[in-house]
TrEMBL record:
It comes from Nocardioides ganghwensis. Transmembrane segments: none annotated. Gene3D superfamilies: 1.20.120.1810, Winged helix-like DNA-binding domain superfamily/Winged helix DNA-binding domain. Keywords: DNA-binding, Sigma factor, Transcription, Transcription regulation. Residues 27-94, 109-180, 193-239 form the RNA polymerase sigma-70 region domain. GO terms for molecular function: DNA binding; sigma factor activity. GO terms for biological process: DNA-templated transcription initiation. It comes from the Bacteria. The lineage of its organism: Bacteria, Bacillati, Actinomycetota, Actinomycetes, Propionibacteriales. InterPro entries: RNA_pol_sigma-70_dom, RNA_pol_sigma70, RNA_pol_sigma70_r2, RNA_pol_sigma70_r3, RNA_pol_sigma70_r4, RNA_pol_sigma_r2, RNA_pol_sigma_r3/r4-like, WH-like_DNA-bd_sf. Pfam families: Sigma70_r2 (PF04542), Sigma70_r3 (PF04539), Sigma70_r4 (PF04545). This is Sigma-70 family RNA polymerase sigma factor.
Length: 249
């Protein structure tokens, strides 16, 4: 293959523009798999892999057009940060479903670039204090930005929790029906207390034992029609006490 890195910027005259474009295309084609492998590292973060590959290839194209071999760097050392920057920028602008404050997003992007720079200088992954000093920000801000790294989309409720077989949704609380029953008891007690003994018995048989009107009539010595009228009156009296808060039966 032609040594693209040596010759690409030797072709600056108009006569050689087409040759230069050909060498740029060749440089891109030679590193397509590198761009795709970098996109693969960012999968499962809420953006389709196809979209990530397109963004990575865009970064590779920009790197090929901007690369200057006279700067003394290999193409890969120039292309990788460019591709990574395009991917992170895409996540910052398009990838957030769980969206932190803008300042946190921007600081996270700066941290990503600073991590690469400090890794080359220090020879180890930089600590939050070293990142804070390099970026001239508070350590607490760095810690906050690092804590949301990768939080581009909410986790599925079906995801397993730790090493257990149970999912996260299995541990979520549910509405306790006892609260509704307790609230109804508190609200109804004063209204029911004012009823006669017979009316309280009818209410008990109808709404606690869930007996039919025919069965209630047989228990208290009334006809079914009389039980129906008594229940209508009782519910009306209770609604008046509750200020109309009881729904119509």
């Amino acid at each position: 293959m032609v040594d693209v890195q040596v010759t690409i910027y030797e072709l600056e005259s108009p006569h050689h523009v087409s040759r230069r474009n050909l060498l740029v295309d060749e440089l891109i084609e030679a590193h397509l798999e590198v761009a795709r492998s970098m996109a693969l590292r960012y999968r499962n973060r809420g953006i389709d892999l196809d979209d990530l590959e397109q963004v990575a290839l865009l970064g590779l194209t920009k790197a090929a057009h901007r690369f200057d071999p006279d700067a003394g760097h290999a193409f890969m050392s120039f292309a990788v940060p460019t591709i990574r920057g395009e991917l992170r920028r895409h996540f910052r602008d398009c990838g957030w479903m769980v969206r932190p404050p803008r300042r946190v997003q921007e600081l996270q992007a700066r941290i990503g670039q600073a991590q690469d720079e400090l890794l080359a200088i220090l020879g180890h992954a930089p600590r939050p204090s070293e990142l804070a000093a390099h970026l001239d920000v508070d350590v607490s801000d760095v810690v906050e930005a690092l804590s949301v790294d990768g939080c581009f989309a909410p986790s599925t409720l079906d995801a397993p929790v730790g090493d257990s077989a149970s999912a996260f949704c299995d541990r979520l609380g549910a509405d306790d029906r006892a609260y509704d029953a307790a609230e109804a008891s508190v609200m109804l007690e004063p209204a029911v207390r004012n009823l006669s003994a017979r009316d309280r018995r009818i209410v008990y048989l109808r709404f606690y034992e869930e007996r039919s009107q025919q069965e209630i009539g047989e228990a208290v010595g009334l006809t079914q029609a009389q039980v129906s009228r008594v229940l209508t009156r009782i519910l009306k009296d209770i609604r008046n006490v509750l200020g109309g808060q009881l729904p119509v039966a």
